[in-house]
Every structure is written in C-alpha cells, then in structure tokens.
Records
---
Amino acid sequence: MASGLDRATVVGDGSSSRLLPRPLAVFLRLVTTVALTFLGLLFVTFLIGRVVPIDPVLAAVGDRAPADVYERVRIELGLHLPLYQQFMIYVGKVLQGDLGTSVLTANTVVNDIKRVFPATLELASVATLLGVCLGVPMGVIAAVYQGRWPDQVIRVVGLLGYSVPVFWLGLVGLLLFYARLDWVPGPGRLDVFYDGLVDPVTGVLLIDSALVGEWEIFWNAAGHLVLPASILGYFSLAYIARMTRSFMLEQLRQEYITTARVKGVSEWRVIWKHALGNVWVPLVTVIALSYANLLEGSVLTEIVFAWPGIGFYLTQSLLNADMNAVLGATIVIGAVFIGVNILSDVLYRALDPRAR
Amino acid sequence: MAEDPLLTIEDLRVDFETTKGIVQAVRGVSFQVGREKLGIVGESGSGKSVTGRAILGLVPPPGRVAAKRLDFEGTDLLSADNRQMREIRGRRISMVMQDPKFSLNPVMKVGHQVAEAYRTHARVASGEAKRRAIEMLAAVRIRDPERVFEAYPHEVSGGMGQRVMIAMMLIPDPDLLIADEPTSALDVTVQLQILAILDDLVSERGMGLIFISHDLNLVASFCDRVMIMYAGQVMEILDARDLNQAKHPYTRGLLSCLPKIDGGHNDLAVLKRDPAWLEAKP
Amino acid sequence: MSSVPESARNDLRSWLLSDTPVSRRQAWLGRIYLAWRAFTGNRLAMLGLGIVLTLILMAALAPWIAPYEPADPDLQSRLLPSSKAHWLGTDELGRDILSRILYGARLTLYVVVLVAIIAAPVGLLIGTAAGYSGGWLDVVLMRITDIFLAFPKLILALAFVSALGPGIENAIIAIAITSWPPYARIARAETITIRNSDFINAVRLQGAGSVRIIWSHVVPLCTSSLIVRVTLDMAGIILTAAGLGFLGLGAQPPLPEWGAMISSGRQFLLDQWWVATVPGIAIFIVSLGFNLLGDGLRDVLDPKNSER
C-alpha cells in the first residue's frame, strides 16, 4: 500500500494568486486538479478501450454481416471520426452518466453499478471503522512504548498486514472460521433464505433492514459481514497503526511536549490530547487513503466471499470480456479514488490551523 | 543569601548511554539557589541546559541522573515518584524555554495553553481559568489579551510568544523559575523587553530564578550571581558585580573575548582551552 | 576471517574507520563498511536479506533441486497430502507442489526484477528532469505524475491486462505503468534539494551541460533513496502480481505462478486445503522478506525517514 507521504499536495501548494482572494484561488486550483485528473483517468480508460484487440463493430453486428451493415454500424458507433473527437464524445457521454451497456447483464453499466456499489461501501466503511478504532490506539501505544515489547508486537502485526495477500487471507479465514470452527456464516451477504426480502432503499443491508425493523435479517447480514470486514479491517489497521506510530514518534520529540510536562500535565493528557491532537491532522489524510486502498482491496476480497459489490462486478465482467462494464467500473472506482484523495487534502487544510 | 536556599544540588551527574559509549553531560555540579537570580553561563555542550532539565526530572532517555543531593524546599527530587514530580512541576518549579515557535503546541490556542497551566494545579471552571489567563497575559504586558487568548502560536510574533510562555509558566505561582536561553531566539530589542518583564515579575513575587545562557554580558547585567560551566563541570561561582575579579582562567578568557566599548583597538583575544579543564574534579 | 591474524584485522578496521581518509576509495569503502555494520546489527533486516537470497537461490537452482517437473501431471496421485514422496503434497493434476513452488520462484523474481527495471529508471528520468529544469516542464511532468498517483493501481492493471489479454508480460507492463510515480516524486524532491547547492554550481561553472550534471552528479545522490523505495515496493508488486494471477490474468497455466495456484486450489479448499494455502505462505514469506530488507536498508541509507 502506498505510503501516505506520496500523496502530498495533489492540489499543489504555495503561491497565491494576487488577483483572487485566497479561498477562491484554492478552490479553483482544487477544481482544476480534480477535473484534470478525472480527464486523465478517462483518457487512460479510453485508450485501454481502444487497445482491445476485439473489433467493436464485429462484436455488435456479428462476423457474417454484409459490408454496408458493417459500415453503417461503424458510423453509428462514431468510429470513423478522428481519435480526439471520439475522445470528446466519450467524455461527454461519461459526464452525462452514460457508461455503455453491459453485454452480460444487458443493463446499463450505470444501473448495474448503482446496484452493486453500496455493498462495497458497506464493507469498506465497516473495515475502515475497525481499522481506525483499533489502529490508532495501537499506533499510539507502539510509539509510547517504543522499543519495548508492545511496540515489537504491534510492529510485527503491522508487518504481517503488509506482507500477506488479501485474497489468500480471506480463503484461510473462511477455511478456519467457517469450515472448521463454524463461527461465522459462509460467503455472500445473506443466507440464501433471506435473499431479496428487504427493499434496497440505500443498498446497505445493515441500514435497510434496521429501517424496517427486520432484526433477524440485520443480524444475519452482520454475521456475514464480520469475516470479510475483519480481513479488510486488518489491512486498514496495519497501515493506520504504522502511520500513527510514525507520526506520534515525531510529535513526542517536539519541544511543546516538554512544555506540557513542565506544566505538570499528566502523561495521559500529554499523549492523548497534546501529541495525538497534532497527529490527527496528517492522520486524517492517511485514513482517507486507507479507505481508498480498501476499495481496491475489495476487488479481490469480494471474489473470495462472493460479496456482490463493485469489485465482484468488475472481475466477473473481466472474465467475460465485457469491456463496457470493466471500463465503467474502472471509471467509477477511479473517480471515487480521486475524490477521496482530494477530500483528504481538503480535510488536511481544514484541520491544520497553520494551513488556513 | 540570608535565608534558606530553595534548591540545593550536590554532585549532580548526568550520563547518556549512546551507541558510541557513555557521554557525560554533567560531571559533579554543585550549587544552591535561593530567592535570587542565578545565571548559568557556558558554551554549547557545557551541560547547562541538561542541568536545568535534570532539576525538573525531564532528562530524556537514554539519560541517567544521579546526585548526592537534589533538594527543593525539603523535598528530595531524586527519589520523588511521578505523581510527586507532577505536583512540583509548574506549581513550584517551572521552566521557560528558548523558542516559542517550537515550545508552544501548534494546534492549541495560546490562551488555552496558559489556562491549562492554571487548571492543572487548581480545580476551577474553565471560565475562571480563562479570566486568570487573560489577567496573566496582561501582566506580561500584552496589550490586547482577549484577542491574543484566541490566537494560535503561528499567529503571534516571537516576542509575544515568549511572553505567552512566561505567562504560562508563572500563572501557577511557582517558587523557582528556570529560564533556558529565553531570549536567544529573539531580536535584540525584543530581548530587553522580555528581560524587563522577567525581572519585574520575579522580583514582585519573590521568586528564585535560574537563568541559563551562553551570553556572559547578558547574564552579568541581569543576575545577582553567576555560575560558569564548562564540559559538564562548574568552573567558578561568583557574584555578578565581582565578575571582573574572576579568578578561573576560563572565566577570564571568556571576559577578554568580549568586545568593550572602551577597550583598545587591538585584536580580540581568542580563548585558549586548557585540557586540564576537561579533567574531572575530585 | 578467523584465519586472518588479529592484528591484520584490526589494521583493516581502523583503516576503514579512519577519520581522515587519504583517497576517495578509502572514504567510499569506509562508508560502505559502516553501513554494512549498521545493517548486519539489525537482525530483522538480516532475516529479510536471508529470505531474499533464498528466493534467488531457489529460482536459480530450481531445475536441479526440484524433485519433479512442475508441469508433469500424474492423475494417479491427485490431491495427496504431505508425504515423503511429496513434501508439500500434490495439486489437482497430481503435480508436486514443492516443485511448482520452486519453479514459481522464478516467475516471481522475473516479475519483480522487470517491473523494477522498467519503473525505476522511468521515474528517475521524469523526476530529475522535472526537478532540475523547473518551470513549465516541472509543472507538466508533476501534473502527469499526480494523475497517475491518483489512480488505483490494481484496478488499472486489471483494466489494462483485460484489454491486452492475459499473460505475464502484459501483467508486468501493467504493474510497471502504475508503479513509477513514487520514484518520480522521490527523484524530484532530491533533485530540488541538490539543484542549487554549491558543488553543482561549481560543476556548471566548469562548463558541464545539464545532461551531464544530471547524469553524473544528481542521479548518484538519488540512488540510495530510490533503492530503499524500490525494495519496499517489491512486496506490493509481488502481491499485485499474485492478485492478477489469482484472477487468471498473469502467467497462464501450466506455468506455476503462485497466485494462479491459489486460484485453482480454491475449489478444494475445504478438504485438500494445502493446495491453496501453501502458495499463499510462499507469497507471504517472500513479501515479508522484502519488507524486512527494505526497512533495514532504510534505517541504514535513509535514516531521516526511518521509523526508529
């Protein structure tokens, strides 16, 4: 997983424009960066789409169509236009929400993704929550006890999280906790018995079932969520704990910590209010990045757990060469990724009094 | 010094265990401080800052502190546990540090940091603490204390930050103040202002002050007594007004390095270090 | 070196540790010696080094130490557990898992080395060019870098490989394309730090052109940070490659790619769990090795970013 230190200033830094008031200038820079990055993403997916060795016209008309039908469809698909014009049309379509139609499901890709995305959101959110609630305290403890056994243990736990393949861990988890110990229910979001019994209001099963008071379904969904969320949560925890430890170590070396101790402030308060208070600023960025990383991690985990989220959708489409769906899902995940990156930058500025 | 001393130190030793061997930062320092201003002067590495921190028990690991005596107003600071030390710090001994850019918490409002110093030792409501803090900010001659209360450290100048620091360290009304290079990070004009504030407040409250600096002139003009340190040991302790009759060659060397307005036109002397000064005294 | 007399060893040591080296070679060897001592003192780093060396050995000696051919099916011996004949059992086609792991080490090494060889120089070039020239070239290159940094690696690699078709070379290219941005950032940061220093100015005054300055002076100073970063990234590359393999997008059967082995073993997970589990352990150990090695290198070469 990339270190948070890479992501410094996607937005750019420094020189304020003297023509515009500072907040407006920052906002404009933000918007242009987002737009450019998204455009870049579309460019890459456009290129990938063009690189496919399958002829899209043939795919549409079949290889026994007469020449004039071929030509007509070719013009319909806009393939006779110069490349940059095709790109413009492509961008226009995407911005209007048209990501093509899935060959597999015959729905529009956008509708498919609307259906599957909440499942991934649910998984990633619970996993990140786990990661933060466990990872931050672990990082703090590791920093405070630097060099001693709590630190060693926590660092090993983190190191393991960096070295193990997520899909393999999912498999081992299923083997152990489902097959051998029967502590958790098996793959999927719900037991087959309950499938389709709850109206998908938000798409997030925990919320939907709670809204209508179907507590049996709620607990069933929660049970299914435990293992995949824990596996993903472990990765989140490893990353967050490591970064928290690093930030805490840096803060504990600073002079203002000595000042607090000179004042007679209790060590508890020194660590959890003074030091951690300064750690939150870069840590929020890390948490946002962890969330984005989990979206990627979910791609592989969802296969293992038959979790019908966007990752599952992406890989199924991949295996069936459904390029529209693949590229559509790539764009959506990429857009969320970019969005989360930008959000983390904004949060950083909002939280650090020095950056305002 | 007629009354009993506030602080008595005998044979203080501070060692740091590093990968390159043991570094002896302080090697057998002894002195006493009463309700007076004692200046500790020395170059970098002389151990003066470490001495200040050792008094407060804030020498960072891998440092180890040992002494024959380290008494403050009857309490043995060496054997005091964490809880006892926390009661002493801030309330009875406190310390002003060098650079407010680094010694103030960047994400906490300045006024809250001062109020925290008060609330750590007195159970009061936050409104009362705020009132006291603003009072204290006014006492260090900050003209707009309510506004400064709500400011962040990066929004105030160096001089203002140092006043905040002094306010923070004096608000619990300690008996002894250690000032570790309090003016070294400031412009010369601001230095004098800060010194004036320190002088007034310390005298008003009848406190003891340990003033650590590398600037012999400054210390001589400001303090009652001066202690010269070199390589972790005390070279000489004398009254400030008797500085010109200093006997130790190191002190004399320091004095002759200082340019004087009525000195001659000759080249300034360069301090010659006698290796004998490095040897540990018995 | 125990046969070398004590006095000669001490002489060599004091020569290396001398505070006043008389030749560039002595200074350089002295620094390497100090770095080596710091590195070997770190037990975890040595473990990492050991693992990586074992991987290389396994890959190099696979044809000689593997007890069976990795692609030889033996349908009589399908899905056997660990035994004297098959130390790690057999897979669904009766192939010896141990031999497949050994040959799979070659694939892993192949992927990791090629990605590093492609991505690092590209990143280095872009980063130094951007950092050294400044101005609009810097802005443009960094915008492009930022855009690539903001992309989800695995997803893009997936999309890329799906378009080009599965295969180990396509997987390598896909991973390399998404791996270079961090190196560009590091190279640029280092270049900017060095760019205006006096020794660069001195060389410039002597008439050296920009290219020569970048190549002979700036690049060598970037290398240590880059080496650390590349080593640390290798674990991530291995995991991404395994992920692609798991999806069937990496090396194609019958090549013994570890991720693909996990995938094909998945259907037998409940009863013949070793088929899917053992390759995962191999991936884990190798990633761990690179992580430990990278951490150790960072402590030695780049201490200001170290986590100690």
---
Amino acid sequence: MLYNLVQALDQKLGFEEAKAHCDVPCGIYDPIVAQINALTVVRMMDLMAALEEGAEVGKKAYNNSMSRYIAVKEEHAEKAKHEIRVIYGDFINDAHIEAHPELPALFHKIMKLGGKARQTADRENGLAFVDAINQFAEIFWAVKGVPTKKAKAPYAPALEMVYPDL
Amino acid sequence: MLRIIKVTGESLLPDYKEGDYVVVTTIPFFFDSLKQGDVIVFRHPVYGTMVKRVEQVCLEEQEIFVVGSHPQSLDSRQFGPIPKSWVTGKMLWHIVKPG
C-alpha cells in the first residue's frame, strides 16, 4: 500500500532516479544472439548433409564448401556458448537461480551440447542445442518479466524459437 | 530534509531492485556518521545520480568506497573512491516494489 502511494506520487511529481549501475553498457543482455548462432549450427549441418548427396563429393569445389561449412559451424557453436556464458556469468545471480533452480544444469547442458556440436555433424545434437538455448531464453525473459512467444524462425532451418513478446 | 528517490538498474540486487524507492535524508550532518553498510545516493560527474552501498569510509581523505552487490556493478572498484562532497543523500527507509 505504501509502495502504491509512493508510486502514485512519483507518477505525479516525477521523483529523481538513482542508478544502481552495472558495468557499461549496463543491462544489455539478449539471448537472441546465442539462439541465432545455434540456429546457424543446424543450418551448416543441413548444408553439409546436402553437399554429401551431390555429385561433386571429393572434388575441389566440394572440399572448399565443406571446409567452409565446418568452419562456420565451429565458429557459431563457440559464439553461442560464449553468449550464454556472458549472460550466465554477468547477469544471472543467486536470486535468479533460486527462482529457477534448473538454470545451473541447463547452463552445463548447453556447454556440453555446444561442444558436441563442434565435434560432430549430428543434427539431433544440433537440434538439442537450439532447444536448450531456447529454454535458457525463456527463463532469461521470465527473469526480466518479459512475456515470450514461440514462432518459427523466418529462415532456414525454420526451427521453433523463443522470442520476447513485446 | 527528506527526498524520495527511485532505484533503477540492478547493481544492488537482490536487496534493492529496479522500481524500489528509497527515502533519503539530504541533511549533511548525517553524512558525517556514514559507516559500512549504509546506502547512499551521490552524484557522479560522469554516471549521474547513483545509489550504492558504503564499503569503507576514509575519514582522513574524506573519501568513500562504494560498491554494489551485483558482480558487474559499476562502482568504486572501477572508478575509485568518491569524495564525500558528492554524497547527496543517506538512505533512511527502503520502500520495496511488491512482487
């Protein structure tokens, strides 16, 4: 009740704000970068599989494309892991973990799936990587008090993704 | 005098969260007795009005080392101790945002 009274006064009078600042740029965290990176991993796996079915297997063009796909898969799996590490290390705190006790295990799962996404071309693992990061995004937005929605990515592979419902 | 200040940002989580209010005294007399654990409002020339917790008071230098509770808090660990003259308020009451 006291809070509501003060809030009403604030809306009328506009109290001064004091920043409990974090490291600059404070508060700019978004799991979408990790989600897109994980999606890219699956896309590269699909391109690798399609290339294997072509007639150019073993030839110069094949080797060139395959090595590029593998390099991009490696890079984006690591980028996804990095993004999740930053959010988990810099943003998530004890109160968040208390509210979402599954977070530490999910974080560890993402790290393991990301590692395996680099080591292999296993699409099922790639899908699990995307799914785990989507779960992380869902929790992240819940912590921020932002509702989420699920929608298919508007590009290949059109996997279901978690987006903030703004 | 008393002032009501709204907290923004997350560096004092979990004790103080975005949307909380603090009632502060702006009477300089109260700044003379600042001690570890007090929550103060001060005006930083670069970052503007900030709210942090007092970690240490150096009476000789008239400086205060302020910290937040969040690991990424921007505080004296980055910008050094602040002069006591920057302090504009000492918290008396904390009005917690429900939920």
